[in-house]
Amino acid sequence: SDYSTPRCYLNHRGCYVVIAVSVFNVLRSLSAASHGLTDEQKEFQKVAFDFAANEMAPHMAEWDQKEIFPVETMRKAAQLGFGGIYVQPDVGGSGLSRLDTSIIFEALSTGCVSTTAYISIHNMCAWMIDSYGNKEQREKFCPDLCSMEKFASYCLTEPGSGSDAASLLTSAQRKGDHYVLNGSKAFISGGGDTDVYVVMCRTGGKGPKGISCLVVEKGTPGLSFGKKEKKVGWNSQPTRAVIFEDCAVPVANRLGEEGQGFNFAMKGLNGGRINIASCSLGAAHASVQLARDHLLVRKQFGETLSNNQFLQFKLAEMATKLVASRLLIREAAQALQEDRPDAVAICSMAKLFATDECFNICNQALQMHGGYGYLKDYAVQQFVRDIRVHQILEGTNEVMRMIISRNLLSES
Ligand SMILES: Cc1cc2nc3c(=O)[nH]c(=O)nc-3n(C[C@H](O)[C@H](O)[C@H](O)COP(=O)(O)OP(=O)(O)OC[C@H]3O[C@@H](n4cnc5c(N)ncnc54)[C@H](O)[C@@H]3O)c2cc1C
Protein backbone atom coordinates (compact mmCIF):
# COMPACT_ATOMS: atom_id res chain seq x y z
CA SER A 1 0.00 0.00 0.00
CA ASP A 2 2.91 2.35 -0.62
CA TYR A 3 2.11 4.55 -3.62
CA SER A 4 5.62 5.82 -4.13
CA THR A 5 7.46 2.51 -4.27
CA PRO A 6 8.22 1.26 -7.76
CA ARG A 7 5.92 -1.60 -8.68
CA CYS A 8 5.03 -3.26 -11.93
CA TYR A 9 1.54 -4.44 -12.71
CA LEU A 10 2.46 -5.51 -16.22
CA ASN A 11 2.14 -9.20 -15.56
CA HIS A 12 -1.16 -9.37 -13.79
CA ARG A 13 -2.86 -6.25 -15.04
CA GLY A 14 -2.51 -6.44 -18.79
CA CYS A 15 -0.72 -3.55 -20.37
CA TYR A 16 -0.58 -1.26 -17.36
CA VAL A 17 2.97 -0.11 -16.77
CA VAL A 18 3.92 1.35 -13.48
CA ILE A 19 4.32 5.06 -13.16
CA ALA A 20 6.98 4.21 -10.66
CA VAL A 21 8.81 5.87 -8.04
CA SER A 22 9.59 9.36 -8.52
CA VAL A 23 6.31 11.01 -9.35
CA PHE A 24 6.70 12.90 -6.14
CA ASN A 25 10.25 13.92 -6.93
CA VAL A 26 9.46 15.52 -10.27
CA LEU A 27 6.42 17.32 -8.95
CA ARG A 28 8.20 20.48 -8.13
CA SER A 29 8.81 21.21 -11.79
CA LEU A 30 5.14 20.94 -12.67
CA SER A 31 3.35 24.00 -13.92
CA ALA A 32 5.85 26.42 -12.52
CA ALA A 33 5.07 26.06 -8.83
CA SER A 34 8.17 28.11 -8.10
CA HIS A 35 7.76 30.84 -10.72
CA GLY A 36 8.01 34.32 -9.26
CA LEU A 37 9.28 33.14 -5.90
CA THR A 38 12.32 34.60 -4.18
CA ASP A 39 15.43 32.46 -3.77
CA GLU A 40 14.56 32.00 -0.10
CA GLN A 41 11.03 30.86 -0.95
CA LYS A 42 12.36 28.44 -3.55
CA GLU A 43 14.68 27.07 -0.91
CA PHE A 44 12.00 26.23 1.67
CA GLN A 45 9.66 25.07 -1.08
CA LYS A 46 12.34 22.53 -2.01
CA VAL A 47 12.70 21.52 1.64
CA ALA A 48 8.91 21.00 1.85
CA PHE A 49 8.74 19.03 -1.42
CA ASP A 50 11.62 16.83 -0.27
CA PHE A 51 9.95 16.27 3.09
CA ALA A 52 6.70 15.37 1.32
CA ALA A 53 8.47 12.94 -1.02
CA ASN A 54 10.71 11.28 1.56
CA GLU A 55 8.82 11.42 4.85
CA MET A 56 5.14 11.53 3.87
CA ALA A 57 4.37 10.03 0.44
CA PRO A 58 5.80 6.60 1.30
CA HIS A 59 3.37 6.38 4.27
CA MET A 60 0.35 8.20 2.91
CA ALA A 61 -1.60 5.06 2.02
CA GLU A 62 -0.81 3.28 5.27
CA TRP A 63 -1.75 6.31 7.40
CA ASP A 64 -5.04 6.44 5.50
CA GLN A 65 -5.86 2.75 5.67
CA LYS A 66 -4.77 2.19 9.28
CA GLU A 67 -5.94 5.64 10.42
CA ILE A 68 -2.57 6.55 11.91
CA PHE A 69 -2.01 10.06 13.29
CA PRO A 70 1.68 10.42 12.40
CA VAL A 71 2.90 12.28 15.48
CA GLU A 72 6.62 11.64 14.97
CA THR A 73 6.55 12.67 11.31
CA MET A 74 4.81 15.89 12.26
CA ARG A 75 7.45 16.55 14.91
CA LYS A 76 10.09 16.10 12.21
CA ALA A 77 8.18 18.65 10.11
CA ALA A 78 8.22 20.97 13.10
CA GLN A 79 12.02 20.68 13.23
CA LEU A 80 11.97 22.29 9.78
CA GLY A 81 9.88 25.14 11.17
CA PHE A 82 6.49 23.91 9.95
CA GLY A 83 4.81 23.73 13.38
CA GLY A 84 4.45 27.51 13.70
CA ILE A 85 5.14 28.83 10.23
CA TYR A 86 3.52 32.24 10.71
CA VAL A 87 4.05 32.45 14.48
CA GLN A 88 6.55 35.02 15.76
CA PRO A 89 10.14 33.80 16.33
CA ASP A 90 10.36 35.00 19.97
CA VAL A 91 8.06 32.11 20.98
CA GLY A 92 9.55 29.52 18.65
CA GLY A 93 7.75 30.30 15.40
CA SER A 94 9.28 30.69 11.95
CA GLY A 95 7.94 34.23 11.44
CA LEU A 96 7.19 33.61 7.76
CA SER A 97 4.53 35.31 5.64
CA ARG A 98 1.13 34.02 4.54
CA LEU A 99 2.49 33.46 1.04
CA ASP A 100 5.44 31.49 2.40
CA THR A 101 2.96 29.41 4.40
CA SER A 102 0.86 28.66 1.34
CA ILE A 103 3.92 27.57 -0.63
CA ILE A 104 4.88 25.17 2.17
CA PHE A 105 1.40 23.66 2.56
CA GLU A 106 1.04 23.19 -1.20
CA ALA A 107 4.32 21.29 -1.31
CA LEU A 108 3.68 19.20 1.82
CA SER A 109 0.25 18.09 0.70
CA THR A 110 1.68 16.43 -2.42
CA GLY A 111 2.94 13.86 0.11
CA CYS A 112 -0.19 13.60 2.27
CA VAL A 113 -3.14 15.99 2.20
CA SER A 114 -4.73 14.78 5.41
CA THR A 115 -1.61 15.16 7.53
CA THR A 116 -0.78 18.53 6.00
CA ALA A 117 -4.32 19.77 6.57
CA TYR A 118 -4.05 18.87 10.25
CA ILE A 119 -0.69 20.69 10.44
CA SER A 120 -2.43 23.72 8.91
CA ILE A 121 -5.15 23.69 11.61
CA HIS A 122 -2.47 23.34 14.28
CA ASN A 123 -0.66 26.34 12.78
CA MET A 124 -3.89 28.35 12.83
CA CYS A 125 -4.37 27.65 16.55
CA ALA A 126 -0.76 28.51 17.36
CA TRP A 127 -1.14 31.76 15.41
CA MET A 128 -4.31 32.67 17.35
CA ILE A 129 -2.52 32.25 20.69
CA ASP A 130 0.52 34.13 19.37
CA SER A 131 -1.61 36.98 18.02
CA TYR A 132 -4.26 37.38 20.72
CA GLY A 133 -2.59 35.89 23.78
CA ASN A 134 -0.76 37.97 26.39
CA LYS A 135 2.92 37.50 27.19
CA GLU A 136 2.29 34.68 29.70
CA GLN A 137 -0.07 32.82 27.37
CA ARG A 138 2.28 33.13 24.39
CA GLU A 139 5.23 31.91 26.45
CA LYS A 140 3.25 29.10 28.02
CA PHE A 141 1.70 27.60 24.88
CA CYS A 142 3.51 28.68 21.71
CA PRO A 143 6.97 27.08 22.10
CA ASP A 144 5.51 23.58 22.65
CA LEU A 145 3.08 24.08 19.78
CA CYS A 146 5.78 25.29 17.39
CA SER A 147 7.93 22.24 18.16
CA MET A 148 4.78 20.08 17.99
CA GLU A 149 5.68 18.67 21.36
CA LYS A 150 2.03 19.52 21.92
CA PHE A 151 -0.77 19.52 19.35
CA ALA A 152 -3.70 21.90 19.05
CA SER A 153 -7.35 21.76 17.96
CA TYR A 154 -9.70 24.52 16.85
CA CYS A 155 -13.15 24.22 18.43
CA LEU A 156 -15.90 26.29 16.84
CA THR A 157 -18.52 23.95 15.30
CA GLU A 158 -21.26 22.44 17.48
CA PRO A 159 -23.94 19.87 16.72
CA GLY A 160 -26.49 22.66 16.31
CA SER A 161 -24.24 25.38 14.85
CA GLY A 162 -22.19 24.79 11.72
CA SER A 163 -22.51 27.40 9.00
CA ASP A 164 -24.27 29.68 11.50
CA ALA A 165 -21.27 29.53 13.81
CA ALA A 166 -22.25 32.65 15.78
CA SER A 167 -25.25 30.77 17.18
CA LEU A 168 -23.01 28.48 19.22
CA LEU A 169 -24.31 27.48 22.66
CA THR A 170 -21.35 26.11 24.65
CA SER A 171 -21.52 28.25 27.77
CA ALA A 172 -18.73 29.54 29.97
CA GLN A 173 -19.97 30.93 33.28
CA ARG A 174 -17.51 32.86 35.34
CA LYS A 175 -17.05 31.68 38.91
CA GLY A 176 -14.22 33.62 40.57
CA ASP A 177 -10.96 32.96 38.78
CA HIS A 178 -12.44 30.17 36.61
CA TYR A 179 -14.98 29.74 33.85
CA VAL A 180 -17.21 26.68 34.06
CA LEU A 181 -17.81 25.27 30.57
CA ASN A 182 -20.80 23.21 29.52
CA GLY A 183 -21.67 22.09 26.00
CA SER A 184 -20.11 20.19 23.14
CA LYS A 185 -18.16 20.79 19.95
CA ALA A 186 -18.61 18.60 16.87
CA PHE A 187 -16.16 17.45 14.18
CA ILE A 188 -13.02 18.59 15.98
CA SER A 189 -9.87 17.79 14.00
CA GLY A 190 -7.30 16.13 16.22
CA GLY A 191 -9.92 15.91 19.00
CA GLY A 192 -8.94 13.46 21.73
CA ASP A 193 -5.35 13.11 20.51
CA THR A 194 -4.36 16.76 20.92
CA ASP A 195 -3.28 18.68 24.00
CA VAL A 196 -4.51 22.24 23.56
CA TYR A 197 -8.10 23.17 22.63
CA VAL A 198 -8.82 26.69 21.37
CA VAL A 199 -12.51 26.90 22.27
CA MET A 200 -15.07 29.48 21.22
CA CYS A 201 -17.75 29.67 23.92
CA ARG A 202 -20.52 31.96 25.11
CA THR A 203 -19.77 34.25 28.03
CA GLY A 204 -22.38 36.86 27.11
CA GLY A 205 -25.66 37.29 25.24
CA LYS A 206 -26.75 35.99 21.85
CA GLY A 207 -24.78 36.57 18.65
CA PRO A 208 -21.08 36.99 17.89
CA LYS A 209 -20.42 39.65 20.55
CA GLY A 210 -21.30 37.19 23.34
CA ILE A 211 -18.52 34.79 22.34
CA SER A 212 -15.12 34.48 24.01
CA CYS A 213 -12.08 32.33 23.31
CA LEU A 214 -10.60 30.04 25.97
CA VAL A 215 -7.61 27.72 25.78
CA VAL A 216 -8.54 24.40 27.40
CA GLU A 217 -5.80 21.92 28.23
CA LYS A 218 -6.17 18.17 27.92
CA GLY A 219 -6.57 16.59 31.35
CA THR A 220 -8.82 19.37 32.65
CA PRO A 221 -11.56 17.67 34.71
CA GLY A 222 -14.87 17.76 32.83
CA LEU A 223 -13.23 17.61 29.38
CA SER A 224 -14.01 14.43 27.41
CA PHE A 225 -14.30 13.23 23.83
CA GLY A 226 -16.76 11.42 21.58
CA LYS A 227 -16.03 8.36 19.49
CA LYS A 228 -13.56 8.64 16.61
CA GLU A 229 -15.60 9.47 13.48
CA LYS A 230 -15.35 7.19 10.43
CA LYS A 231 -14.61 9.43 7.46
CA VAL A 232 -14.38 9.29 3.65
CA GLY A 233 -10.93 10.85 3.78
CA TRP A 234 -8.70 12.82 6.16
CA ASN A 235 -8.02 9.49 7.85
CA SER A 236 -4.53 10.26 9.13
CA GLN A 237 -6.09 12.63 11.65
CA PRO A 238 -8.78 11.79 14.19
CA THR A 239 -12.07 13.72 14.31
CA ARG A 240 -14.11 13.63 17.51
CA ALA A 241 -16.68 15.57 19.46
CA VAL A 242 -15.22 17.56 22.35
CA ILE A 243 -17.46 17.60 25.41
CA PHE A 244 -17.46 19.97 28.40
CA GLU A 245 -19.28 19.00 31.58
CA ASP A 246 -18.71 21.50 34.39
CA CYS A 247 -15.22 21.90 33.00
CA ALA A 248 -13.36 24.54 35.05
CA VAL A 249 -10.92 26.59 32.98
CA PRO A 250 -8.79 29.37 34.52
CA VAL A 251 -9.73 32.92 33.51
CA ALA A 252 -6.00 33.26 32.82
CA ASN A 253 -6.58 31.01 29.76
CA ARG A 254 -8.93 33.50 28.07
CA LEU A 255 -7.44 35.07 24.94
CA GLY A 256 -8.16 38.81 24.80
CA GLU A 257 -11.29 40.24 26.41
CA GLU A 258 -14.71 38.71 26.83
CA GLY A 259 -16.69 39.12 23.61
CA GLN A 260 -13.67 39.09 21.27
CA GLY A 261 -13.68 35.33 20.63
CA PHE A 262 -15.75 35.26 17.46
CA ASN A 263 -13.59 37.92 15.87
CA PHE A 264 -10.45 35.90 16.73
CA ALA A 265 -12.06 32.77 15.31
CA MET A 266 -12.84 34.49 12.00
CA LYS A 267 -9.36 36.07 11.77
CA GLY A 268 -7.87 32.62 12.26
CA LEU A 269 -10.06 31.24 9.50
CA ASN A 270 -8.98 33.86 6.96
CA GLY A 271 -5.51 32.35 7.03
CA GLY A 272 -6.98 28.87 7.49
CA ARG A 273 -8.87 29.22 4.23
CA ILE A 274 -5.71 30.06 2.31
CA ASN A 275 -3.99 27.12 3.96
CA ILE A 276 -6.73 24.60 3.24
CA ALA A 277 -6.95 25.84 -0.37
CA SER A 278 -3.19 25.34 -0.61
CA CYS A 279 -3.65 21.74 0.53
CA SER A 280 -6.15 21.25 -2.32
CA LEU A 281 -3.61 22.78 -4.65
CA GLY A 282 -0.94 20.27 -3.65
CA ALA A 283 -3.37 17.41 -4.26
CA ALA A 284 -4.29 18.76 -7.69
CA HIS A 285 -0.64 19.33 -8.48
CA ALA A 286 0.16 15.70 -7.66
CA SER A 287 -2.92 14.41 -9.49
CA VAL A 288 -2.11 16.26 -12.74
CA GLN A 289 1.31 14.67 -12.60
CA LEU A 290 -0.14 11.21 -11.94
CA ALA A 291 -2.64 11.61 -14.80
CA ARG A 292 0.06 12.80 -17.16
CA ASP A 293 2.28 9.84 -16.35
CA HIS A 294 -0.60 7.42 -16.75
CA LEU A 295 -1.60 8.83 -20.16
CA LEU A 296 1.98 8.46 -21.34
CA VAL A 297 2.14 4.73 -20.56
CA ARG A 298 -1.40 3.34 -20.82
CA LYS A 299 -2.18 1.99 -24.30
CA GLN A 300 -5.67 1.55 -25.73
CA PHE A 301 -6.75 1.33 -29.36
CA GLY A 302 -3.14 0.63 -30.32
CA GLU A 303 -1.57 3.81 -28.94
CA THR A 304 -0.92 5.57 -25.69
CA LEU A 305 -3.81 7.56 -24.23
CA SER A 306 -1.58 10.65 -24.48
CA ASN A 307 -2.21 10.60 -28.25
CA ASN A 308 -5.93 11.10 -27.75
CA GLN A 309 -6.91 14.71 -28.30
CA PHE A 310 -9.88 14.64 -25.95
CA LEU A 311 -7.60 13.55 -23.12
CA GLN A 312 -4.90 16.03 -24.17
CA PHE A 313 -7.46 18.84 -23.96
CA LYS A 314 -8.70 17.62 -20.59
CA LEU A 315 -5.13 17.56 -19.29
CA ALA A 316 -4.57 21.08 -20.62
CA GLU A 317 -7.70 22.32 -18.83
CA MET A 318 -6.58 20.67 -15.59
CA ALA A 319 -3.16 22.32 -15.73
CA THR A 320 -4.76 25.69 -16.57
CA LYS A 321 -7.14 25.50 -13.61
CA LEU A 322 -4.28 24.40 -11.38
CA VAL A 323 -2.26 27.47 -12.26
CA ALA A 324 -5.32 29.76 -11.96
CA SER A 325 -6.01 28.34 -8.49
CA ARG A 326 -2.42 28.90 -7.46
CA LEU A 327 -2.46 32.51 -8.67
CA LEU A 328 -5.64 33.30 -6.76
CA ILE A 329 -4.40 31.64 -3.57
CA ARG A 330 -1.14 33.56 -3.73
CA GLU A 331 -3.00 36.81 -4.38
CA ALA A 332 -5.17 36.12 -1.31
CA ALA A 333 -2.11 35.33 0.80
CA GLN A 334 -0.58 38.64 -0.24
CA ALA A 335 -3.82 40.54 0.47
CA LEU A 336 -4.02 39.04 3.97
CA GLN A 337 -0.36 39.78 4.65
CA GLU A 338 -0.88 43.42 3.67
CA ASP A 339 -4.17 43.57 5.63
CA ARG A 340 -5.91 44.91 2.53
CA PRO A 341 -9.59 45.90 2.90
CA ASP A 342 -10.58 43.22 0.37
CA ALA A 343 -8.55 40.50 2.10
CA VAL A 344 -11.49 38.64 3.67
CA ALA A 345 -13.37 38.48 0.35
CA ILE A 346 -10.28 37.43 -1.60
CA CYS A 347 -9.43 34.70 0.93
CA SER A 348 -13.00 33.43 0.51
CA MET A 349 -12.70 33.58 -3.29
CA ALA A 350 -9.45 31.63 -3.16
CA LYS A 351 -11.00 28.97 -0.90
CA LEU A 352 -14.14 28.71 -3.05
CA PHE A 353 -12.37 28.64 -6.40
CA ALA A 354 -9.36 26.52 -5.54
CA THR A 355 -11.12 23.86 -3.45
CA ASP A 356 -13.82 23.41 -6.12
CA GLU A 357 -11.45 23.45 -9.10
CA CYS A 358 -8.80 21.31 -7.48
CA PHE A 359 -11.41 18.72 -6.53
CA ASN A 360 -12.54 18.65 -10.17
CA ILE A 361 -8.91 18.27 -11.28
CA CYS A 362 -8.30 15.32 -8.96
CA ASN A 363 -11.58 13.71 -9.96
CA GLN A 364 -10.73 14.10 -13.65
CA ALA A 365 -7.29 12.62 -12.98
CA LEU A 366 -9.02 9.62 -11.40
CA GLN A 367 -11.25 9.33 -14.49
CA MET A 368 -8.17 9.29 -16.72
CA HIS A 369 -6.89 6.29 -14.79
CA GLY A 370 -10.01 4.33 -15.73
CA GLY A 371 -10.69 1.42 -13.40
CA TYR A 372 -7.24 1.65 -11.88
CA GLY A 373 -8.12 5.06 -10.51
CA TYR A 374 -10.79 3.41 -8.38
CA LEU A 375 -8.33 1.01 -6.77
CA LYS A 376 -6.71 1.82 -3.47
CA ASP A 377 -3.35 0.82 -4.99
CA TYR A 378 -3.33 4.16 -6.78
CA ALA A 379 -2.75 7.45 -5.00
CA VAL A 380 -5.19 9.45 -7.10
CA GLN A 381 -8.26 8.10 -5.28
CA GLN A 382 -6.83 9.22 -1.95
CA PHE A 383 -6.28 12.74 -3.24
CA VAL A 384 -9.93 12.81 -4.35
CA ARG A 385 -11.18 11.50 -0.99
CA ASP A 386 -8.92 13.74 1.06
CA ILE A 387 -9.74 17.05 -0.59
CA ARG A 388 -13.50 16.57 -0.88
CA VAL A 389 -13.93 17.88 2.63
CA HIS A 390 -12.13 21.14 1.83
CA GLN A 391 -15.31 22.24 0.05
CA ILE A 392 -17.16 21.77 3.36
CA LEU A 393 -15.00 22.85 6.27
CA GLU A 394 -13.47 26.15 7.42
CA GLY A 395 -16.71 27.63 6.08
CA THR A 396 -18.58 25.73 3.36
CA ASN A 397 -18.23 26.98 -0.20
CA GLU A 398 -21.80 28.28 0.08
CA VAL A 399 -20.70 30.36 3.07
CA MET A 400 -17.77 31.61 0.95
CA ARG A 401 -20.30 32.86 -1.61
CA MET A 402 -22.19 34.62 1.20
CA ILE A 403 -19.03 36.40 2.39
CA ILE A 404 -17.99 37.43 -1.13
CA SER A 405 -21.42 38.75 -2.12
CA ARG A 406 -21.87 40.54 1.22
CA ASN A 407 -18.58 42.30 0.58
CA LEU A 408 -19.59 43.25 -2.97
CA LEU A 409 -23.04 44.50 -2.02
CA SER A 410 -21.88 46.51 0.99
CA GLU A 411 -19.44 48.55 -1.08
CA SER A 412 -20.61 52.10 -1.71
C1 LIG B 1 -13.60 16.14 8.62
C2 LIG B 1 -14.07 17.41 9.24
C3 LIG B 1 -13.23 18.11 10.07
C4 LIG B 1 -13.68 19.29 10.68
N1 LIG B 1 -12.84 19.95 11.55
C5 LIG B 1 -13.33 20.97 12.27
C6 LIG B 1 -12.52 21.56 13.31
O1 LIG B 1 -11.37 21.18 13.51
N2 LIG B 1 -13.06 22.56 14.03
C7 LIG B 1 -14.33 23.02 13.83
O2 LIG B 1 -14.75 23.93 14.54
N3 LIG B 1 -15.12 22.49 12.85
C8 LIG B 1 -14.65 21.47 12.09
N4 LIG B 1 -15.43 20.89 11.11
C9 LIG B 1 -16.80 21.34 10.95
C10 LIG B 1 -17.06 22.11 9.67
O3 LIG B 1 -16.47 23.38 9.74
C11 LIG B 1 -18.58 22.15 9.45
O4 LIG B 1 -18.98 20.84 9.10
C12 LIG B 1 -18.99 23.15 8.39
O5 LIG B 1 -18.78 24.47 8.84
C13 LIG B 1 -20.47 23.00 7.97
O6 LIG B 1 -21.30 22.95 9.08
P1 LIG B 1 -22.40 21.78 9.17
O7 LIG B 1 -21.69 20.50 8.96
O8 LIG B 1 -23.12 21.97 10.44
O9 LIG B 1 -23.32 22.03 7.93
P2 LIG B 1 -24.62 23.00 7.86
O10 LIG B 1 -24.26 24.35 8.38
O11 LIG B 1 -25.77 22.30 8.48
O12 LIG B 1 -24.84 23.12 6.29
C14 LIG B 1 -25.43 22.07 5.50
C15 LIG B 1 -25.43 22.55 4.06
O13 LIG B 1 -26.28 23.69 3.93
C16 LIG B 1 -25.56 24.77 3.38
N5 LIG B 1 -26.03 26.02 3.96
C17 LIG B 1 -26.18 26.33 5.27
N6 LIG B 1 -26.64 27.58 5.40
C18 LIG B 1 -26.75 28.08 4.17
C19 LIG B 1 -27.18 29.34 3.63
N7 LIG B 1 -27.59 30.34 4.43
N8 LIG B 1 -27.17 29.51 2.30
C20 LIG B 1 -26.78 28.51 1.47
N9 LIG B 1 -26.39 27.30 1.91
C21 LIG B 1 -26.36 27.09 3.24
C22 LIG B 1 -24.11 24.51 3.73
O14 LIG B 1 -23.22 25.21 2.87
C23 LIG B 1 -24.06 23.00 3.56
O15 LIG B 1 -23.89 22.68 2.21
C24 LIG B 1 -14.98 19.76 10.44
C25 LIG B 1 -15.82 19.04 9.56
C26 LIG B 1 -15.38 17.89 8.97
C27 LIG B 1 -16.31 17.14 8.07
TrEMBL record:
Residues of the Acyl-CoA dehydrogenase/oxidase C-terminal domain: 259-409
Documented EC number(s): 1.3.8.5
CDD domains listed in its UniProt record: IBD
GO molecular function terms attached to this record: flavin adenine dinucleotide binding; short-chain 2-methyl fatty acyl-CoA dehydrogenase activity
Residue ranges constituting the Acyl-CoA dehydrogenase/oxidase N-terminal domain according to the UniProt record: 38-149
GO cellular component: mitochondrion
Gene3D superfamilies: Acyl-CoA dehydrogenase/oxidase, N-terminal domain, Butyryl-CoA Dehydrogenase, subunit A, domain 2, Butyryl-CoA Dehydrogenase, subunit A, domain 3
Reaction catalysed by this enzyme: 2-methylpropanoyl-CoA + oxidized [electron-transfer flavoprotein] + H(+) = 2-methylpropenoyl-CoA + reduced [electron-transfer flavoprotein]; propanoyl-CoA + oxidized [electron-transfer flavoprotein] + H(+) = acryloyl-CoA + reduced [electron-transfer flavoprotein]; (2S)-2-methylbutanoyl-CoA + oxidized [electron-transfer flavoprotein] + H(+) = (2E)-2-methylbut-2-enoyl-CoA + reduced [electron-transfer flavoprotein]
Active site: 394
Pfam family, one: Acyl-CoA_dh_1
Domain Acyl-CoA oxidase/dehydrogenase middle: 154-247
GO annotation, biological process: branched-chain amino acid catabolic process; lipid metabolic process
Co-factor requirement: FAD
Keywords: Branched-chain amino acid catabolism, FAD, Flavoprotein, Oxidoreductase, Transit peptide
Family classification: Belongs to the acyl-CoA dehydrogenase family.
Entry function: Isobutyryl-CoA dehydrogenase which catalyzes the conversion of 2-methylpropanoyl-CoA to (2E)-2-methylpropenoyl-CoA in the valine catabolic pathway. To a lesser extent, also able to catalyze the oxidation of (2S)-2-methylbutanoyl-CoA.
Protein name (database record): Isobutyryl-CoA dehydrogenase, mitochondrial
Gene of this entry: ACAD8
